[in-house]
Specification:
This protein has 10 helices and no strands. The chain is an all-alpha fold and about 210 residues long.
Length: about 210
């Protein structure tokens, strides 16, 4: 990790501490069954904790997990594109290599290409930010670690409501607990998927822009 990446990660970890502390305090009360949800919220949190730790272990053992998650998110957005728009994007990004390929092969090629580009740019920063947030949290107390857990769980639950299909695809391997790391880096793809699913008027404009690439 270069000095600039490390400095950015440290600053990010420090900046997130106040909100992590607040969220962690709230979650700690939930875990003690002192919140309105009582034991139901407590059991839900304990299950989230176990899934978060499992996926963290997988991530730190194999950083290729980041690309797997990115590919799933991007592929979900692309799956809502009509064939002509997907072909146009493929031609611009990859060229004629997928000219005779099937829809599924073209989509996988595009999502894999984009996933590699995105993850290549975020890999070191994301891992270092997460590591430093966990490390910083351990220094100042478990409440901050609870805050990171709260961010992960809240993002997963929000995704389950906004995009159940993507949530199910990520949930299989507990990858939904890493979704909060991708909301900012992949916000354009997430917005693309949301637009194609929920906003027909804006979709027409978007597809015209793609055709004019």
């Amino acid at each position: 990790m270069d000095a600039k990446t490390l400095a950015i990660s440290v600053a990010d970890g420090i900046a997130s501490l106040p909100m992590d502390f607040y969220l962690g305090l709230e979650r700690t009360f939930q875990d003690l069954s002192l919140s309105d949800g009582g034991r139901n919220i407590q059991r839900r949190n304990f299950n989230d904790d176990a899934r978060f730790y499992r996926t963290l272990v997988r991530l730190f053992k194999n950083q290729a997990v980041l690309k797997q998650v990115a590919d799933l998110i991007i592929n979900n957005a692309l799956s809502n594109l009509p064939d002509s728009a997907l072909k146009r994007i493929s031609d611009k990004l990859i060229g004629s290599a997928t000219a005779m390929a099937s829809r599924s092969a073209t989509q996988l090629a595009v999502s894999g290409y984009l996933g590699s580009k995105v993850v290549g740019g975020m890999m070191a920063t994301t891992i270092s930010k997460l590591s430093l947030r966990l490390w910083t949290g351990s220094l100042v107390g478990g409440v901050v670690l609870q805050g990171v857990l709260s961010r992960a769980a809240d993002a997963s639950r929000r995704l389950s409501l906004e995009n159940p299909e993507l949530w199910r695809a990520l949930y299989v391997n507990d990858f939904d607990m890493l979704y909060f790391l991708f909301e900012k880096p992949l916000e354009n793809f997430i917005e693309l998927g949301d637009t194609l699913r929920k906003n027909p008027a804006k979709t027409e404009q978007l597809l015209r822009e793609i055709e004019n690439l």
